[in-house]
Write a structure and sequence with these properties.
The protein is α/β, with parallel strands linked by helices. It has a single domain (3-145, 165-199), classed as 3-Layer(aba) Sandwich (Rossmann fold). The chain is built from eight helices and six strands; from the N terminus they run βααβαβαααβααββ. Strands 3-2-4-1-5-6 form a six-stranded mixed beta sheet. Helix 2 (30-43) packs across helix 3 (57-69).
């Protein structure tokens, strides 16, 4: 039975500063480094055959720390922008609280938490889903079907899109799902490539 491990990158500087990050290439904090080390400790006994990550520094840095921690720095790594965070467009770099003062709490909540409303110049969660899932089906699912164990280190919304797909969640259900930084989520597949168990 194949296993898929999902990890959201460790805390980034803009997570700490409550800014919209999106595609901006921001590194992780000291706390984020510790979260990545803890994720590695949690995964230490697992067999991991290949790792995937986005092209953004915070995810790549988190992955490198995890692989060092588990003693497997040389496994194959695939980086692809399909796994990037959702783009927040013109909101990127803005403080979330200040943006709410400018546009109103309700508008900012809609931009952040609706499924198909697009922030100015950015992507909706639906847009993110529509790039993550075809990539997963083409590049990652075939490996799982061959019983390879896969680690994906990515972002809150790219992982949310994938979880929506794996768990057959509705748009309303996925918007209620929070994904903590640096905490591995494990999906175990049966021989028919159905998720048989989820562990966190």
């Amino acid at each position: 039975m194949a296993k898929l491990f999902l990890v959201r990158h460790g805390q980034s500087l803009w997570n700490l500063e409550n800014r919209f990050t999106g595609w901006q290439d921001i590194d992780i904090t000291e706390t984020g480094i510790e979260e990545a080390k803890n994720a590695g400790i949690a995964l230490k006994k697992e067999k991991i055959d290949i790792a995937f990550t986005s092209v953004l520094l915070r995810a790549k840095h988190t992955l490198s720390i995890i692989l060092d921690e588990i003693g497997k720095p040389n496994i194959p790594i695939v980086m692809d922008k399909a796994l990037n965070e959702r783009s927040y467009g013109n909101l990127e770099g803005l403080n979330k609280a200040e943006t709410a003062l400018k546009y109103g709490d309700e508008q900012v909540y809609t931009w952040r938490r609706s499924y198909d409303v697009v922030p100015p110049g950015g992507e909706s969660l639906k847009d993110t889903y529509n790039r993550v899932i075809p990539y997963f089906e083409k590049e990652i699912a075939p490996l799982l079907k061959k019983n390879e164990n896969v680690l994906i280190v990515a972002h809150g919304n790219s992982l949310r899109a994938l979880i929506m797909y794996l768990e057959h969640l509705s748009p309303d259900e996925i918007l209620e799902r929070e994904i903590a930084t640096g905490i591995p989520i494990t999906y175990i597949f049966d021989e028919n490539f159905h998720v048989s168990r989820r562990e966190e």
